[in-house]
Amino acid sequence: MTSFSFSRRLVSEALGTALLVATVVGSGIMADRLTADTALALLANTLATGAILVVLISVLGPVSGAHFNPVVSLAFALRRGLTARSTLAYIAVQILGGIAGTILAHAMFELPLLQASTTIRTGGAQWLAEVTATFGLVFVILAGLRFRSEAVPWLVGLYITAAYWFTASTSFANPAVAIARSLTNTFAGIRPVDLPGFIVSEVFGALLALMVASWLLTKPRDSQILAETEPAP
Amino acid sequence: MTSFSFSRRLVSEALGTALLVATVVGSGIMADRLTADTALALLANTLATGAILVVLISVLGPVSGAHFNPVVSLAFALRRGLTARSTLAYIAVQILGGIAGTILAHAMFELPLLQASTTIRTGGAQWLAEVTATFGLVFVILAGLRFRSEAVPWLVGLYITAAYWFTASTSFANPAVAIARSLTNTFAGIRPVDLPGFIVSEVFGALLALMVASWLLTKPRDSQILAETEPAP
Amino acid sequence: MTSFSFSRRLVSEALGTALLVATVVGSGIMADRLTADTALALLANTLATGAILVVLISVLGPVSGAHFNPVVSLAFALRRGLTARSTLAYIAVQILGGIAGTILAHAMFELPLLQASTTIRTGGAQWLAEVTATFGLVFVILAGLRFRSEAVPWLVGLYITAAYWFTASTSFANPAVAIARSLTNTFAGIRPVDLPGFIVSEVFGALLALMVASWLLTKPRDSQILAETEPAP
Amino acid sequence: MTSFSFSRRLVSEALGTALLVATVVGSGIMADRLTADTALALLANTLATGAILVVLISVLGPVSGAHFNPVVSLAFALRRGLTARSTLAYIAVQILGGIAGTILAHAMFELPLLQASTTIRTGGAQWLAEVTATFGLVFVILAGLRFRSEAVPWLVGLYITAAYWFTASTSFANPAVAIARSLTNTFAGIRPVDLPGFIVSEVFGALLALMVASWLLTKPRDSQILAETEPAP
Lengths: 233, 233, 233, 233
What we know:
Chains A, B, C, D: Its main location: membrane. The structure is a homotetramer. Chain A is 72% helix and 0% strand. Chain A is an all-alpha fold. Residues 225-233 of chain A have low confidence and may be disordered. Chains A and B meet through helix 2, helix 5, helix 6, helix 8 and helix 9 of A and helix 1, helix 2 and helix 4 of B.
C-alpha cells in the first residue's frame, strides 16, 4: 500500500483516529458550554470536524492511507487486497485510538475520563440515516480515488460537513468513532446499547457503496458504448 | 461527452440529484428543528448544500457531467450538441432523482414521505431573483469550464453558497430541485402552484447566461484587438 | 493585459462589480431580515461576499483581470503600465456596475431602487481601519500574483472574509463598492457624506501596499544576499 | 532558506505576525460587540483567524517561511539548521510584530492601545490543551512540508479552525501571539501571569511533535519493510 513500515502505519491510524475523535468530542463540549442554541453548537462541531478531516487525511494519508474508520478499511480489504491480518490490525488500532481521543478530550475539559453516554440514538429512521451517511462516505472515497485522488482529503471533509446536517443521525458513519463516542456523556455521545444498530447500518451502507461504485465507475468496452449511447427511450 | 455508458450516465444524474435534494431538504429540516433563528437555519442549509455540491460534482462529473439540473442540461444541449433525446432523458432522471431525494430525507427524519408545500414563493421580485440566480449559475459553469475546468466543482459550490443569501428567493436555480422541493412542507419547500413562475424564470436566466457568455468569453480576431484595445473614450 | 477586446473587458468589470455589490447588499438585507443577532447577520454577509469573490475573480479574471475595484486598477496602472485612459474607463464602469448591483439587490428584495444611506461610518479609527483593510487587500493581490497567481481568487476571498471582522469598518476597501453602498439604507450602507474619508483612506492604503510590496517582494542581488544573510544583531 | 535578504525576511515575519494578531484580537472585539452568544463570537473569531492564516502563509511563506511563531522557528532550527542567531532574530521580530498587531487592533476599535488582560487561563487541563494544540500544529506543518508542501497554508488554517474548538484553551499554540494577547483585555486576552504556563506547554508540545514526526515520517530501509509488512499479531 505505502512504503512505510507496518508499525508506522498502525501508529498513523491510531494517532489520526485519536485526533479525529478528540475533535468530534472536544468541539462538541466546547460548543455546548458556550451556547444554548443547539444548531449553533452543531455548526461549530461540523466546522471543526470537517476541517480536521481535511488536515488529517492530507498529512497521514501518505503513511497509512488515513482510513481512521473500520468500514473504510473493510472496503479496501474487499476491493484492493489489504490482507485480513492487516485489516484486523487497522481496525483494532482505530478503535483504541478513538477511545484515547475521547479520554484526551475529557482530560482537556476536566471531565471524568470515561463515561457512559445516555444519548438515545436508535430506531429505523436513525439506521436508515447511518446507511445513507456511510454509503455516501464510502462512495465518495472510492469515486474520489478513481477520478481525483489528490482531492480526497477535501472531498471527505466536505462530505462530512454536509452529512452532519442532512442525515438525521448527524452522520457517525464510522464504527470506531461510534464506539469512542459511546464513552462520553456529552454533546457527541451515543448510548452504548445503541451501538450495534449503528455499526450494522454502517457496514451495510459501506457494502452498498462498494456494489454501486463497482458498477457505476466502470467504463464498458467500446462495443457496449456504441450500443448504449443512444438507446430507444 | 464521457466514455461511460448511457445507463451509467443516467444513474449518475439520478443519484447526484437525489443526494443534492436530500441535502437541501434534510439539512433544512435538521436546522429548523435545532434553532428558532431563521438566519442560523439558512446558514446551516447553505453550508450543507455548498459542501455537497463540491463533492457530487467532483465525483460524478467524470461519469455524466454532473448537471443535476435541467437548465444546465439544456444549456449544454444548445451549446455543445447533447442530443435532444439524451437531454430529455437527463431531465427525466433528474426530476425522478430529485423526488427520490425528498422521499429519502423525509424517511430519515420520520416525516410523511410526500407532502405538498405551503410555502409561498411568487411575484415579480422572486422571479427576478430566480432569473439572477440561474443566470449567475449557468454563467459560472460556462466560464469556469472555459478557463478553469478543474475548479468547476468549487465554483458551483461557492456560487450557490453566496446565492442562497444574495437572491431574495434563496436561489433554487434548478427546475428538478424546485419540483422536488414542492413535495416537502418543511424549511426548503415551495408551493406546487408557484413552480411554473420559478421554472420559467430559471429557463430565462439560463438562456440569458448563454447569450452573454457566448459574446463575452469569445476572443476577437487579432485585427479587432488592434482596433479595440484603446478606443477613443 | 489579456487578449480580450476592450469592450469585453469593460463589460467584464461592470458585470463583476455589479454581482459583487448585489451580493454584499443583498446578503446584508437577507440576513438582517432573518435574525436579530448582528454578529450572525455579519457572518452570513461575510460568507456570501467571500464566496462570490472567489467565483467572480476565477471566471472573469481571464477576461479583464477582475479588479472590480478602482484602487486595484490604480495599483496596476502605477505598477504594470495600464494606460491612464484604460484605467479611467475601468474605474468608470466599476462605479456604474456597482450602482447597478445596488439597484438589482433592491429590486430583488422589493425595496426602493435607490436610497441614501444613514449609517454613520466616520472618524479616525474608521479611516485607520480602511487604510489597514486596503493595504492588506492590495498587498495580498500583489504578493499573490508574484508567488501563487492561480490562488489569487482564493486569497482575495479569504482575506476579505477575515477583514470583515478584524477591521472596525468591516473592510470596504473599494471606492466603487463604497459608492454603491452609499445608495442603500440597509445593513451594508454608508452615509454619502462619509464617502470621501473612506475613499481617501482606501487610496492611501493602496499606495502604502505598493510601496511595501515593491521593497519586500524584491530579491536583492547575490552580493547583497551574501552581505545580509547573517548580519550582526 | 529563501533567497530574500535577511532584513526582508525579518520584516516579513514581523508584518505577518502583526496582521495575524490584529486579526485574532480585532475579530474577537468585533464579534464580542455584535453578539451576546459566546459560541457565535468564537465562531467569527475562528473563521477570521483560519482565513487570514491561509492568506498570510501563502503570500509571505516564499519570503521568510511564514513561521509567525517562535516554536515553529525553534522546530526548524532543530530540524533544518536555521542558525541560532537567525532563530533569535525571528523570535524577536515575531514578538514585536505581535505586540504591534494588538496595538493596531486597539487603535482601529478606539480602545486604550495597551492593556493588561484579566482573563484567567491556567491549570493542568489548559496546559494539556496547549500541549495538544501545539503538538498538532507543529506535526501538521512538518508532515505537510514532507508530503504536500503547496497545501501547507490551507492545512495550517484548517488545523487552527478545528483547534479553536477542540482544545479547551482555544489553541493559542504560539508564544508570540500569546504575549501579544496578554496585552488586550478583550475577547482574546490572557492574563500576563498565565503566560509562562502556556509558553512552557507550547514548547513542550512542539518538541513532542518533532520527536513523533522524525520517527513516524521516516521510511525504513527496504529490508525493514520486508520484515515488518506483515508481522505476527
